[in-house]
Amino acid sequence: MKYLKNSLCYVADNNTEVVGVCVLNARDGNNIELFNSAVSPEVQGLGVGKVSAQGYA
Predict the structure, then answer these.
(1) Cα(3)–Cα(54) distance, integer angstroms
(2) For residues 15 and 3, what is the distance between their CA atoms, to the nearest angstrom?
(3) What pTM was estimated for this model as a whole?
(4) Which pLDDT value is given to residue 45?
(5) Which residues, including other chains, have CB under 8 Å from residue 47's CB and lie 6 or more apart?
(6) Domain boundaries of the chain, sorted by first residue
(7) What are 5-56's pLDDT values in tens digits?
(8) What start-end ranges are recorded for coiled-coil regions in this protein (predicted)?
């Protein structure tokens, strides 16, 4: 799992359970790579994924 060495995992929660995750990898000083993004079906369409993407772009 050497490729995960420079990765960060961010978790979105609603104060009681995890509702989303986002895994990012630093490619170099100016670029990041999105490895994984997932949002629970119960909150899809409510902007959880959009906030994750905007927060790290």
Answers:
(1) 24
(2) 31
(3) 0.71
(4) 92
(5) none
(6) 2-41
(7) 778 888 888 999 999 988 888 888 788 888 888 999 999 999 887 776 665 5
(8) none
- Tell me, what's the pLDDT at 43? 92
Angle at 4 between CA 45 and CA 27, to 5 degrees: 80
Chain centre to alpha carbon of residue 4: 14
Handedness of CA 43, 45, 47, 49 (dihedral sign): positive
CA distance 57 to 51: 10
Show the tokens assigned to 43. Answer: 């909150």
Write out the chain in H/E/C secondary structure: CHHHCCEEEEEEECCCCEEEEEEEEECCCCCEEEEEEEECHHHCCCCHHHHHHHHHC
Q: Which amino acid would we find at residue 7? A: S
